[in-house]
């Protein structure tokens, strides 16, 4: 299953570090189903350069996401031990100490593959027991900077994938959460450059004409 707009987000159960230091063995997005929106974002590697700036930026905006009933979840192909170790390193030393939202360990890389953000060439092998694993490859497989907005029904409503050097804009992620929730509440669509507090647009010829005439 691959992440697709309008389709259920691929399910997974994996180890993760939560609350800045607790390792859990069976973290799943199903805990949010029917309760919260989810922003799931992938990053390439622990102990790198652009990545900590992104993780801290999401932490700084966490109260804004929470006020919108939205959970933030990070994921990379590092191990849970690597995540835990990085979480102990102070921000001033390049670490992510202070990050409290879950950081998922996609050690076998199947989550990144399912969401279509895994770099490089790879294929899946299935053993006699029906277990799926990535076939061996000579190149390193890590995640692109993928981000997925998932609604309370578990459906992917927006995604964005950046190449490795290109950091994301957290304000834009909040804007997309606002746009989805505005549409769900009012039934009106969100035109170009829409932001919270602005009027929406009726999805009719008359609505388009009215909006364009006013803007």
From TrEMBL:
Annotated family: Belongs to the peroxiredoxin family. AhpC/Prx1 subfamily.
Signal peptide range: none
Record function comment: Thiol-specific peroxidase that catalyzes the reduction of hydrogen peroxide and organic hydroperoxides to water and alcohols, respectively. Plays a role in cell protection against oxidative stress by detoxifying peroxides.
Main subcellular location: cytoplasm
Keywords annotated in UniProt: Cytoplasm, Disulfide bond, Oxidoreductase, Peroxidase, Redox-active center
Residues the record marks as active site: 51
PROSITE patterns linked: THIOREDOXIN_2 (PS51352)
Transferase among keywords: no
Organism of this sequence: Cephaloticoccus capnophilus
InterPro entries: AhpC/TSA (IPR000866), Peroxiredoxin (IPR050217), Peroxiredoxin_AhpC-typ (IPR024706), Peroxiredoxin_C (IPR019479), Thioredoxin-like_sf (IPR036249), Thioredoxin_domain (IPR013766)
GO molecular function: thioredoxin peroxidase activity
Location of this chain's protein in the cell: Cytoplasm
Domain called Thioredoxin: residue spans: 3-182
Top-level taxon of the source organism: Bacteria
Name of this chain's protein: Thioredoxin peroxidase
Gene Ontology biological-process annotations: cell redox homeostasis; cellular response to stress; hydrogen peroxide catabolic process; response to oxidative stress
């Amino acid at each position: 299953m691959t992440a697709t707009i309008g389709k259920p987000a691929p399910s997974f159960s994996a180890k993760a570090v939560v609350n800045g230091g607790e390792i859990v063995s069976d973290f799943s997005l199903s805990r949010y189903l029917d309760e919260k929106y989810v922003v799931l974002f992938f990053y390439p590697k622990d102990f790198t350069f652009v990545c900590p700036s992104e993780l801290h930026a999401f932490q700084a905006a966490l109260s804004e996401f929470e006020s919108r009933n939205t959970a933030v979840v990070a994921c990379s192909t590092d191990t849970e031990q690597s995540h835990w170790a990085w979480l102990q390193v102070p921000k001033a030393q390049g670490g992510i100490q202070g990050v409290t939202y879950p950081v998922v360990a996609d050690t076998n890389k199947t989550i990144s593959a399912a969401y279509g953000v895994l770099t490089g060439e790879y294929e899946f092998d299935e053993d006699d027991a029906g277990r799926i694993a990535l076939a061996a490859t000579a190149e390193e497989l890590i995640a692109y900077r993928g981000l997925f907005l998932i609604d309370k029904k578990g459906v992917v409503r927006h995604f964005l994938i950046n190449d490795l050097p290109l950091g994301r804009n957290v304000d834009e992620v909040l804007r997309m959460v606002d746009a989805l929730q505005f549409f769900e509440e009012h039934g009106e669509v969100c035109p170009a450059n829409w932001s919270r507090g602005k009027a929406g647009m009726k999805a009719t010829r008359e609505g388009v004409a009215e909006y364009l005439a006013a803007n």
